[in-house]
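> call design_seq(struct)
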């Protein structure tokens, strides 16, 4: 490989959910602070082409990039930490790799050869490993390998990592293995054996990790570090402790304290391009940890049993809360448990309510009742995607008196389809990757709450939905107090609605949460929090 890009691979062992994504993002942040351009990519071992068709209950949120890729939620962490956009190339699944190889086979590109896992699948994996590096925009590409070492599914990825070392050569290639050091309360001991076994598994696959990052509830004593170094064949100073943190945003600083960035740079022969600049990050943490006020916000949705389903929204509140020096207590409320009777008790003490994105009919009536309550009681409201659509349905039913108004997603035969499918969505039969996805332009009307939040009229926001505001109802709605404050300039689709005579009632057809980062909190979240603070004062 001719490129001068350095490649870091992060594997995981012992258990899943150790936070490889956060470690990858933290390391990338530290390298970015040393002046390097860094990107992170994730290779997932499942067979879906992308996570767009996965149930959020099972896999958490589907994160959407500028170019409209439906990706793993870890890409959200990468963008939130680095403040740089990712793309389709940053998230590859086994399904996509096989799909590419089989498509090539059908085209006859393998010239009569028997197509096999090695070398054809592993070559395709490596082609994708190196793709972002070859564009010449990055000094460092960090690749997170999903799953655990030893899983049948991840074997081809691990084999490709082994081979990549020989393609890339000395000083250009590094493996970091993330493991768990469990604490046995009865023995009062931190145990290294699971890590030893997991490193053995890596060694069996021909990979010697260069650095161990050890998740632990307690600080690792020197003798535990020594034992790990000895048995796992790594340098003592490359056994890095990763203590449980109060917030994921502490992890870059914890990793800095452990000198993870220095170890990586010395192994890859990288010399820093600028002085470490984490001042803004520290400033954010300072505000996050020292709020001067707090608000209670309810997030109404149907996937509340797995908060990861709302990952980007939850993180967007952390970013916007910190900049406002305001602690946001976010309560997840199941829309299925909401009814006209239970709503006053559940919502009246909240300073603001968000209705979340979602799909399908379940819980819809509870969401509609929630919107009615906050509209009538002047409680700040923020509707996101389906949440905006619900606000439109509620307004049509209870203000315009169209009692049967609905979205055609919920009732295809509704006589009043205030939310419906666009022509280009009507004949779609393949579900994967066919929604309105990615970044679209939106023009804001001056004097509206949306304009006030952004402070400009031309914006770009990311989408992930099929259904749209039905413009046939726009003039009637406007006459009754709705303001279409954001419009797509090319298609005239309504992207934002608000209610004029309400302290803060805003619904966005797009997903603002995908663009919120630590250093660039999203203006709609910031303004919504401001409105909740003001609402609280009036109580
Ligand atoms: N189900 C709605 C649609 O497809 C909203 C999607 C969403 O909230 N992301 O239009």
């Amino acid at each position: 490989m001719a490129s001068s890009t350095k490649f870091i691979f992060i594997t995981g062992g012992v258990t899943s959910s150790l936070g490889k994504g956060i470690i990858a993002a933290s390391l990338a942040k530290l390298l970015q602070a040393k002046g390097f351009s860094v990107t992170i990519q994730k290779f997932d071992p499942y067979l879906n082409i992308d996570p767009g068709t996965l149930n959020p209950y099972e896999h958490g949120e589907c994160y959407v990039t500028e170019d409209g890729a439906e990706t793993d939620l870890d890409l959200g962490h990468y963008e939130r930490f680095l403040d740089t956009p990712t793309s389709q190339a940053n998230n590859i699944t086994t399904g996509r790799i096989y799909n590419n190889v089989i498509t090539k086979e059908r085209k006859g590109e393998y010239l009569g050869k028997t197509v096999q896992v090695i070398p054809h699948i592993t070559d395709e994996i490596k082609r994708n490993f190196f793709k972002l590096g070859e564009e010449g925009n990055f000094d460092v590409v960090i690749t997170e390998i999903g799953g655990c070492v030893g899983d049948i599914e991840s074997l081809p990825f691990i084999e490709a990592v082994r081979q990549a070392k020989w393609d890339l050569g000395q000083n250009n290639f590094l493996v970091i293995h993330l493991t768990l050091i469990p604490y046995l309360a009865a023995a009062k001991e931190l145990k290294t054996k699971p890590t030893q076994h997991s490193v053995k598994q890596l060694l069996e696959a021909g990979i010697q990790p260069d650095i161990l990052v050890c998740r632990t509830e307690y600080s690792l004593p020197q003798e535990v570090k020594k034992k790990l170094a000895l048995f796992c064949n790594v340098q003592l100073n490359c056994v890095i402790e990763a203590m449980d943190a109060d917030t994921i945003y502490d992890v870059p600083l914890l990793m800095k304290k452990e000198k993870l960035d220095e170890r990586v740079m010395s192994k890859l022969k990288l010399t820093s391009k600028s002085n470490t600049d984490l001042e803004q990050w520290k400033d954010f943490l300072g505000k996050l940890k020292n709020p001067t006020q707090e608000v209670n916000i309810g997030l109404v949705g149907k996937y509340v049993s797995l908060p990861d389903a709302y990952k980007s929204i939850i993180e967007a509140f952390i970013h916007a809360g910190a900049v406002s020096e305001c602690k946001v207590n976010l309560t997840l409320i199941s829309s299925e448990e909401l009814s006209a009777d239970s709503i006053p008790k559940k919502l009246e003490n909240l300073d603001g309510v968000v209705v979340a994105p979602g799909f399908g009919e379940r819980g819809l009536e509870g969401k509609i009742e929630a919107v009615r309550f906050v509209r009538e009681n002047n409680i700040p409201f923020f509707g996101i995607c389906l949440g905006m659509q619900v606000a439109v349905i509620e307004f049509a039913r209870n203000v315009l008196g169209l009692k049967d108004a609905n979205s055609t997603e919920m009732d295809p035969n509704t006589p009043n389809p205030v939310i419906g499918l666009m022509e280009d969505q009507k004949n779609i039969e393949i579900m994967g990757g066919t929604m309105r996805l990615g970044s679209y332009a939106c023009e804001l009307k001056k004097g509206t709450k949306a304009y006030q939040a952004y402070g400009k009229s031309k914006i770009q926001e990311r989408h992930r939905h099929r259904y749209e505001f039905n413009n046939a109802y726009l003039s009637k709605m406007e006459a009754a107090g709705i303001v279409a404050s954001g419009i797509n300039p090319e298609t005239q689709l309504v992207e934002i609605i608000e209610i004029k005579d309400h302290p803060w009632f805003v619904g966005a057809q797009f997903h603002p949460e995908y663009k919120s980062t630590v250093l660039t909190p999203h203006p709609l979240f910031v303004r919504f929090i401001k409105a909740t603070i003001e609402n609280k004062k009036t109580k």
